[in-house]
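As agreed, record minuted below.
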Amino acid sequence: ADERRLFYTAATRAKSVLRISHTSADPDSGRVASRFLKPLLDSYGTSPSVINPNSEGQQKAFSASALVAQLRRIAIDTSQSHALREAATSQLIKLAQLKDKNGRLIAPAAHPAAWWGIAPFTENSRPIVALDEPVYVRGSSFADLLNCPLNWFMKQQAAADVGGSVAANFGSVVHALAAGVVDGEIANNEVEIAAKLDEHWAALRYSAAWESKVQKTEAIRSIRNFLIWRESRLPELSKTQKAEYSESFFDSDIEFPMPDGNVEKIKLRGSIDILQVQADGQIFIADIKTSTSIASKKDAETNPQLGVYQKAVQLGLINLAEVDVAQSLQSAGAALLFVRDKTKSAGPSVRIQSPLAEAETDWMDQNFAVAIEVVRKEIHTPIVSKSCTYCPVKSSCPTQAEGKSVI
């Protein structure tokens, strides 16, 4: 943001003509073009003029560290001539031995021992998760484990997650109001819901009064969308026993057969937002989402969080004392309720997940096998995806600009 403001300020100082230039890009020395040049040129439909471009092997190094980086790059570049690579290696050997008057190395980075990616991966003598402990799988974080093991490790194992944001608190309020309606603690009318919202809204601490007002309206609309969906589900529900539960908690260890024949233990844990008992005795699951981005129908079919919840139902891990069922329950499927969706006139956007297969192996079993391998082998590698934009641990990720310091 600071860089953008400086760029804007500099550009607005021009009175008749604006000329923008930069030196040849050289990432290793920090001499790179501003990220704001391309969109500026694109908006005017022009191309930059290139003056005296340097070839890859002739870029000038303006500091000792830039020189070392340039020599290192050439030394390992198989596309360069053998003679040039040998010359670069010879110079690196000399630089690695240079010392100042106090006996300190002048260019320690010239020695291969300091090069990242050269040394083998280190292994902790004691595993992060003891071999006799089950692999912990929580519904709300299971997608992190599968989509980006580094994100999962930093948040779940290294306790590097940031504190609760205003957006997260918004979601907590909406979830609490929905649970209150389902449990009968809040009357199913907007007047009482709005009154209950007023009791807790000030605790969210929005930075501006107008933002607080807008978000409060959004919260009421989100609850209204949830109630519209709930009303549409009533004909499907059981009439002879309690049909709805909120925040259904489960926490149990299960045995899972791995593809190699070994049996692993998994601790399945989670809390299901809405659990409904249908007239046919099957269990339908719904998870309330207050994010503004909506999952595709394809992604919802293999949503790991809903998959964990369906597994918990299938395995009879949820204690529904008022429901007369066998030890193993049958899932009727699950749904993601995007209650903040503005694309429809009424109700949330609903993304359905089909019931898990009755066969021994389904896509969730494959997910469990992958998760166990990641945890046991400690494969905490980053995976670039669209979720990187709002990742809370960017500063520790080597694939992101904010995390460059770690490499």
